[in-house]
Amino acid sequence: MELISTLPTDSIIGEKIMIAKEFIQSLTQKGIHYNYCIKHKEVISCDESRKYYQRFSYYIGEKSDYCICKNLLLRERKGKRRKFLIILSDTKQLDLSTLKEQLHASKLEFLPQDEMKSLLNTTPGNVSLFSLTYDKEKQFEVLIDQDLLQEKQLAFHPLYNGMSLFLNPTEALKFVDTIAHPYQITAIPDKEKTLSKKRAC
């Protein structure tokens, strides 16, 4: 485990970092091991994350050595209004229409910002697998793309999008098990593959 710190902090950022560090300590206490923790400017997109990760290639490796995880919060627009956390690689573009059919759900839409805050204590750009810490009522159905299990390392924000943890897929799943949150490992539909199949037909 290695903490790389390069940026000065003010009091607000310092408080966020403290929350993240306490969370990381809780992972260690639960026997969940991570490979690296890096601190960077707050990011709101996978593209921004990639830019900063490249600066730490000496530690975390090149792009092929890790996967930046895209964490999407969705809900049904009508009906039961089920809620979902979808986790997949940033290189994939989620096919919402196919996912809707796969889940036997009504039309899906992205979770509004106010519900992100009230239900998971998070904001856009700060969502990650670790946000499930706040889902005490198990309101979110969690779908993890099966391809992620083949990656060397997965990158997630530890409750603060100015830091990133790199850990093996087995350790990421171990976290979900420790909080007893149900999840499903499945093939998340990729829009690019769907279009390719349609062209082939």
What this model shows, in words?
With 201 residues, the protein is an alpha/beta fold. It has helices at residues 11-29, 46-53, 57-60, 96-103, 113-120, 169-178, 191-200, and strands at 3-4, 36-39, 67-76, 83-89, 108-110, 140-145, 154-156, 163-167, 184-186. Helix content is 33%, strand content 21%. The longest helix is centred in the first third of the chain and has 19 residues, at 11-29. Strands 1, 2, 3, 4, 5, 6, 7, 8 and 9 form a 9-stranded mixed beta sheet that branches. It has a single domain (3-200), classed as YbaK protein (Alpha-Beta Complex), CATH 3.90.960.10. It is globular, with a radius of gyration of 17 Å. The mean pLDDT is 91.
Distance between the termini: 49 Å
Number of helices: 7
CATH 4th-level superfamily:
YbaK/aminoacyl-tRNA synthetase-associated domain
Task: Tell me the structural class.
Answer: alpha/beta
Radius of gyration: 17 Å
Name the overall outline: globular
Q: What proportion of the residues is helical, as a percent range? A: 25-40%
CATH architecture annotation name: Alpha-Beta Complex
Mean pLDDT: 91
Describe the main β-sheet briefly. 9 strands, mixed
CATH topology: YbaK protein
Q: What is the CATH class?
A: Alpha Beta
Low-pLDDT stretches: none
Number of DSSP strand runs: 9
User: How many domains in all?
Assistant: 1
Order of helices and strands: EHEHHEEHEHEEEHEH
